[in-house]
Amino acid sequence: MVEVVRTPDGGLQPQAVVDPGGTVHLVYYRGDPAAGDLYYVRRDPGASAFSAPLRVNSGAASAIAVGSIRGAQLAVGRNGRVHVAWNGSQRAEPKAAGDATPMLYTRLNDAGTAFEPQRNLIQVAAGLDGGGSIAADSAGNVYVTWHAPQPGVHVETNRRVWIARSRDEGRTFEREAPAWDEPTGACGCCGMRAFAAPGGKLYILYRAATNGEDRDMFLLVSSDAGRTFRGRRVHPWKLNACPMSSAAIVARQGGIRLAWETGHQVWFTDYDADAEKLAAPVAPSGGGSRKHPALAMNSRGETLLAWAEGTGFRRGGTLEWQLFAALGQPAGAASSAPDFPASSLPAAVARPDGTFLLVY
User: Fold this and answer.
1) Phi/psi of residue 194, each to 5°?
2) What is the pTM assigned to this prediction?
3) Is residue 266 over pLDDT 80?
């Protein structure tokens, strides 16, 4: 059920989305981890290979891969348009206010032949460290999120989640605003994940940094297309350090399924949107040093959870994955593949026929 492939061109940090027609869209990173380029490929239903790559960033070496969580994320919105956002490198232009690191965005042009010139979306909330995220829906909404300090107070416990919204498929963006008023902080070197669902629902999964040691995962939920949010704690973790973690979200019947790292283990659970309830978290069998969960769920409710095992800062490891039945029970033992590259993470999608594609 699982096809495992390497990222094209020896790339890093693949991010994948499958559209309603079954086409797999993929972005990845190439170059020095401190300053490189992003590329986009697609794989149509029935094809055995990805398309020729298109460069995403218009400014050379304007992307970054250090720490595995600062690279590109992508979303597919109305009419199948591809949207990409990423943390800028030190060489990236245009800069954010005060010559700060930009949160960059681009989209595929109307003809689908190239990406538009990259744009910085940070107007007031400068101070990028960990990775941002992007989400899009069929109504033409595009959301770019990141965490940064409240202007004027540059401490981790003052960091918060910011959101820039577009109502016209990414043609223009509103000035960014805080997503939630609760003072949870945000873990400086950690990534986050945004996900848009029909009906104006938007979800953001991020790691807090309350009191400098509460690195709990929080889920923000909006039912009005990102105008207002309510939040809840997903999983606690006492840690007086930054774990440089990432997260994942996929759609499920009646809500979402989300995955994250806590205590060097990867976990997933379900959020019921109607009841506004979280199920008990589930972890794969065994244990080790597990990071960067990737999540995919097919139409039968079967789930693929993949992760990086034994990796660290500029250190590779192995790729691991496990299948789960519709009710969350393991469907067999975990599998593995060697030579997982440093500064990377896996990506997973479910195809319309129920099979999974896992890229690393």
Assistant:
1) -110, 145
2) 0.97
3) yes
pLDDT value at 58 more than 90: yes
Contact between residue 70 and residue 131 where contact means Cβ atoms under 8 Å apart: yes
Kindly tell me if the per-residue pLDDT of 41 is higher than 90: yes
Could you tell me the pLDDT band of residue 327, with boundaries at 50, 70 and 90? confident
The beta strand positions in 50-126, using DSSP E, are: 54-55, 73-76, 82-87, 103-107, 119-120
- Is residue 186 domain-resident? yes
Q: Which amino acid is at 91?
A: R
> How open is the CA angle 12-17-23, to the nearest 5 degrees?
115
In the chain, what percentage of residues exceed pLDDT 70?
100
Residue 194 CA to residue 123 CA, distance in Å, equals 20
Nearest C-alpha neighbor of 141 from the set 93, 109, 173: 173
- Nearest CA to 135 out of 205, 68, 65 is that of 205
Report the number of distinct structural domains present in the chain: 1
- Which structural domain, as residue segments, surrounds residue 135? 2-287
What phi and psi, each to the nearest 5 degrees, are found at residue 338? -85, 175
Residue 296 lies in a domain: no
Residue 146 lies in a domain: yes
